[in-house]
Design a protein that fits this description.
This protein has helices at 3-12, 32-41, 59-69, 102-116, 138-143, 153-165, 185-194, 208-217, 226-230, 234-237; strands at 17-22, 46-49, 74-76, 90-96, 122-130, 170-174, 199-202, 221-224. With 240 residues, it is of the alpha/beta class. Bound molecules: SN-glycerol-1-phosphate.
């Protein structure tokens, strides 16, 4: 499975991608078969797994259970190095570019090397940019960084391009899990216009209309977590 190649191909063909984000601390493994039945009837193309924390170290167990249910690519979206499991297909190798905390710019990445250097996980270098979604998120707390204001389009754009210029293969604009305000249409449009690498957008997207808006503005891949956690019926709106 070459995850990045497929994302690039989809971008070239203007095929939009949707990742369902599963928080290992929140998913009910007893319900996983019926959850994935709904996933497979929907336009979902990727499964992301991760959360800001994994206090009980359940990620490994959860990924193993997910792999039994689906052939969709399973990509780790880790809050920290402890969430790495070899059972997934790939990993977003994140640098928190909007913050100035060295722990999440480079330190966690160095700590992860022993788990990744002989691994078959596909590594996806990703510039991760927190944007103010009008809600204090776990990522802000854990990373001890502030998101960039939505009005500061220029800083958001320059941060995204600094990511591209330093060799990231993906840029992820993140309003935060459960954000009140998703990343604006304007921001997505401006970043998309200037960026050559694929653009991921997530945080606070909870309707088909919002999803379409993000796609139309230029997101190549949209990530949705909370809306599915709150109501699995949302999958029905996103039927293939
Ligand atoms: C969070 O971007 C993801 O990291 C998804 O956010 O849970 O708000 O969909 P939601």
């Amino acid at each position: 499975m070459n995850i990045y190649k497929n994302i690039l191909l989809a971008k070239k063909e203007n095929r939009k991608l949707l990742a369902v984000l599963i928080d290992p601390e929140k998913i009910d493994l007893n319900n996983i078969a019926s959850f994935f039945e709904k996933v497979h009837q929907s336009i979902t193309t990727h499964i992301f797994v991760g959360g800001s924390t994994d206090k009980d170290s359940v990620t490994d167990k959860v990924v193993a259970a997910i792999k039994k249910e689906t052939h969709l690519p399973v990509v780790l979206f880790p809050g920290d190095v402890k969430q790495i499991t070899q059972k997934a297909d790939g990993i977003l190798f994140l640098s928190l570019l909007s913050g100035r905390n060295p722990e999440y710019l480079i330190e966690q990445q160095i700590k992860s090397v022993p788990f990744l250097k002989d691994s078959s996980l596909e590594i996806l270098p990703t510039g991760y940019i927190l944007i103010d979604g009008q809600k204090d998120t776990a990522t802000q707390k854990v990373s001890n960084t502030k998101p960039i204001a939505q009005e500061n389009t220029e800083l958001i754009l320059n941060t995204a391009l600094a990511g591209e210029f330093s060799g990231k293969k993906l840029i992820y604009l993140e309003a935060g899990s459960g954000a009140t305000e998703a990343v604006s249409h304007i921001i997505i449009t401006v970043v998309k216009k200037n960026l050559n690498i694929p653009l991921i957008v997530g945080g606070g997207i909870r309707s088909k209309k919002q999803l379409e808006n993000a796609f139309n503005a230029g997101a190549d891949l949209v990530v949705i977590g909370t809306a599915f956690e709150n109501d699995e019926a949302f999958f029905k709106d996103l039927k293939k």
